[in-house]
Automatic annotation (TrEMBL):
Family: Belongs to the short-chain dehydrogenases/reductases (SDR) family.
MF-aspect GO terms: oxidoreductase activity
Ketoreductase domain boundaries: 4-188
Species per Swiss-Prot/TrEMBL record: Mesorhizobium zhangyense
Pfam families: adh_short_C2
PANTHER family noted in UniProt: OXIDOREDUCTASE, SHORT-CHAIN DEHYDROGENASE/REDUCTASE FAMILY (AFU_ORTHOLOGUE AFUA_5G02870), SHORT-CHAIN DEHYDROGENASE_REDUCTASE FAMILY PROTEIN
Superkingdom: Bacteria
Protein name (record): SDR family oxidoreductase
Secreted found in the keyword field: no
Keyword Amino-acid biosynthesis: no
Keywords: Oxidoreductase
Entry-linked Gene3D superfamilies: NAD(P)-binding Rossmann-like Domain
Length: 252
């Protein structure tokens, strides 16, 4: 995977940061985006360069579709100036937010927030970036285990991620002529700051969730980052239009 370039949205923290580090260790150069975590993004850039890779961090709000043409132009400029390239190889649509809302009380504002972040953003950002993705490249969308199993309070979030999984299959078909593979991952419970960090920081929550996972523990960021690096590698080059469950066997 040496000298390939990945663009990861939401790379400054959490799973996006871990994905970037795992890919950098395999020789992939990184373009990461951040919304407000400029300090964290700069720390990640320095860490990647310490590993011998190249990295650039760009500001992006995935809910602001009007900014996407300008962002795409900035990516093109970064490719030329930092990497001496015209296109990049992999796109990971990772940026997102968690939202807990029981169906009966959910508001239109909450619904709109999830649609904008998890569906509209990835759709139209990918659309704008397609001319910059190399033929034979890969796109990886981030879904959720909540599509497969249910937990009260996540109906709207899960519905958005279900749409992402269907979209993934259609993208795989429609981009097949360019040999662009499109897949998704569906992480289970992971010990990160997602959703307020309860799985990571609350021992009781962690133990309760672990009881429902076949391997007996909640996931760690490295479990997802390593899987993403593997899925984007040539070893998985024949996988297309599928969703990989990365949950350790949660609620099977």
């Amino acid at each position: 995977m040496t000298n390939q370039i990945v663009l990861i949205t939401g790379a400054s923290r959490g799973l996006g940061r871990n994905m970037a580090l795992h890919l950098a260790k395999r020789g992939v150069h990184i373009i990461g985006t951040y919304r407000s975590g400029a300090t964290e993004a700069e720390a990640l850039r320095q860490e990647i360069e310490a590993l011998g890779g190249k990295a650039a961090m760009l500001a992006l709000d995935v809910t602001d579709t009007a900014s996407f043409p300008t962002f795409a132009a900035k990516v093109a400029e970064t490719l030329k100036n930092t990497f001496d390239r015209e296109r990049f190889d992999f796109l990971v649509n990772n940026a997102g937010n968690g939202l807990f809302a029981n169906f009966a009380e959910a508001t239109e504002e909450q619904f709109e927030s999830l649609v904008t972040t998890h569906l509209r953003g990835p759709v139209f950002l990918t659309q704008k970036l397609l001319p910059l993705i190399t033929d034979g490249g890969r796109i990886l969308n981030v879904s959720s285990g909540f599509v497969r199993f249910t937990l009260p309070g996540y109906s709207l979030y899960a519905a958005m991620k279900a749409a992402v999984e269907v979209l993934t299959r259609y993208m795989a078909v429609e981009l097949g002529a360019r040999r662009i593979r499109v897949n998704a991952i569906a992480p289970g419970a992971i010990a990160t700051d997602f959703g307020g960090g309860a799985v990571r920081d609350n021992d009781g929550v962690n133990a309760y969730v672990a009881q429902g996972i076949a391997l007996g523990r909640v996931g760690l960021p490295d479990d997802v980052g390593g899987a993403v690096a593997a899925i984007l590698s040539d070893d998985m080059g024949w996988a297309n239009g599928t969703t990989f469950d990365i949950s350790g066997g949660q609620l099977l």
